[in-house]
Amino acid sequence: MIMPDSDTRSMLTEIDHVAIAVGNIEEAVAFYRRVFAAEVVHRERIEADQVEEALIRVADSYIQLIAATSPESTVARFLAKHGEGLHHVGYRVQDAGAAVKSLKAEGVKMIDEVPRPGSRGTTVAFVHPGGALGTLIELVEEP
Q1: Catalytic annotation on 64?
Q2: ∠ at Cα 10 (9, 15), nearest 5°?
Q3: Does the first or last residue of the chain, that is N or C, have fewer Cβ atoms within 10 Å of its Cβ?
């Protein structure tokens, strides 16, 4: 196992969530309840992103089920193109603003040029898949 130098600290502190885009959030919640005996610990409608989320805690992280609340949302477009499935990975960071600044300095393509409010009172910023090996990444700073 490769360990970082004691002077090196990763910008990423934990996996916050794995987001799964679903066509029907009630059916997805029922599936997780029936198959995995998993219960939702948080639900929220995020108007700015035109999505509804249901969070299921797994250890110190979450499965985030997300459904579009508008046909114009990015999640609706994702579902139309790809169908249901893995949408993005959320990583916790200590300071979303500093993380965005550092990534931009490295030339990483960002969706959010500055952090913005997320669910659960978090501050978030998305890294464009074109700048992150084809993966949509959400940086999550907890309150």
Answers
A1: yes
A2: 140
A3: N
88 is catalytic: yes
Q: Enter the DSSP assignment of 3.
A: -
CB of 20 closer than 8 Å to CB of 87? yes
Asked if residues 118 and 42 have their Cβ atoms less than 8 Å apart, the reply is no
Decide if 142 is catalytic: no
**Which pTM was predicted?**
0.91
Q: Exactly one of 52, 53, 87, 141 is catalytic; which is it?
A: 53
CA distances in angstroms from 72 to 30, 35, 47, 115, listed in the order given: 26, 31, 12, 22
CA distance 126 to 138: 4
Encode pLDDT of 64-93 as tens digits.
Answer: 999 999 999 999 999 999 999 999 999 999
Coil, helix or strand for 81?
A: helix
**Candidate list 17, 52, 87, 141, residue with the active-site label:** 17
Per-domain boundaries in the chain: 13-141
CATH: 3.40.50.2020, 3.40.50.170, 3.40.50.1820, 3.10.180.10. Which one for 13-141?
Answer: 3.10.180.10
Confirm whether 87 is a catalytic residue.
Answer: no
3-state secondary structure of 121: helix
- Residue 39 catalytic? no
